[in-house]
Amino acid sequence: MRSVRARAAIGATLVVAVALVAAGLAVLSVLRTNLIDQADLQAEVAAREVAGQLALDTRFEDLDLDDEEDHPVQVTDEEGRVVFVSKGLQAVSGTRSPGVSPLPSAPAATPSPGDDDDDDDDGGDGTRPARGEVSSDDPDFSDGTATVGGKQADYRFAAVEATTPAGLTLTVHAGAPLAAEQEAVNTVRGAMLTGLPLLLAVVAAVTWLVTRRALRPVEGIRRELAAITASEDLARRVPEPGSRDEIAALARTTNETLTVLEASVERQRRFVADASHELRSPIASLRTQLEVADAHPELLDLPGAVADTVRLQVLAADLLLLARLDAGEKPGAARLEAGALVREEVSQRTGDRIPVVVEAAEDASYEVNGSRGQLARVVGNLLDNAQRHAENLVAVRVAADGSGVRVEVRDDGAGVPEEERERIFERFVRLDDARSRDDGGAGLGLAIARDVAARHGGTLTVHRAAEGGAAFRLWLPGAV
Prior knowledge:
Layout: H1 4-55, E1 73-76, E2 82-85, E3 89-93, E4 140-148, E5 151-163, E6 169-177, H2 179-231, H3 246-295, H4 302-326, E7 334-337, H5 338-347, E8 356-359, E9 367-370, H6 372-389, E10 394-401, E11 404-411, H7 437-440, H8 445-455, E12 459-464, E13 470-477
Parallel strand pairs: 8-10
Antiparallel strand pairs: 1-2, 1-6, 3-4, 4-5, 5-6, 7-9, 10-11, 11-13, 12-13
Helix pairs in contact: 1-2, 3-4, 4-8, 5-6, 6-8
């Protein structure tokens, strides 16, 4: 079952079915209990009425019995012998005795053998009612059947004890019919059995329709994604429904993902095109020099060939580092001292045209976590950029900044226009297009520096220096 609509409809139907069955059973149970309680009350009233007459020494043949068909009566003595039954009672079950034939010599006022009229102690110990009284204890109830006038039916019997003035203890069994209870329960049960399938069918249909309507935007999203996959056109977007539910959120998230994916693919295409263009120049130059040297060895420009080879090597290293960063390579977690790292990197730069001024307290500690090689590469790229643009000053300042460390590289050159301060961190972007590629570089240094800073949890921004040039500020979180 792969359809969400079908699963939702079946699931909702099953839940409603279980709930309705449980509720129906509870209703039937409560209804049956209430009706049985009513039958108990009727049987008790009938039994106590007969018992009251016996307690007043009314003879059996003079008993006033109301509606003997609906309330059959059976009277037994202390030994369980039947002494009286109502008119028309032909068979009975569920009482003290199944008999319906009274003893021929059992008048109500005749005491049982062994009884004495002067025995005033009977009943005084609370074990049975006093003479001429009806028991006030709760009656015993039982289920049974009775055949009255040739018709058998189910009854609810109540047993009440009565003591005649002669000291004879009798038990009156009076019944109340259960036909009304059975008819009511059967009627309710039949209505439930008839209505339950119809109600479940309505629930299933409504759930199917509602789910279908709710999932209609999902089908539109799926079709559009399939079309995007087939056409490879990442500029397309899935339709966003006007509702504010989870499906609308899914559509918005999908479009945001497509936007990021489109930008990533476009950046990757531009990267491949720019990399091919940048590699073509040194390779072509190197090939030309080698071909000239092969034909005319005396014209070999060895320094130029070495320079092109070095430039090609640096460009290949930059491209390799960018590829690793794009692949999500995590930096190391070594504990580094930023001041010492800057001084070490500056000390190794022997070919700079402008000496680099380092401004970092010798006795201060500026510790960060990260990869020494990558962070040294960031500092080197920033210094290279400053050397290309500076007039007379290149300075590096290391200082604490909040919960981290700030490394600022500034120069006194022309600076970076405010509208270009984000663009310069894009790959293969050079603002100094008038310069030669040898002087201006490939435009990867600042992009690499920002990517490395971001991988270390830091930031890299550019501002205007106090000297009028550019100030690149690298912020890294402190060591933990």
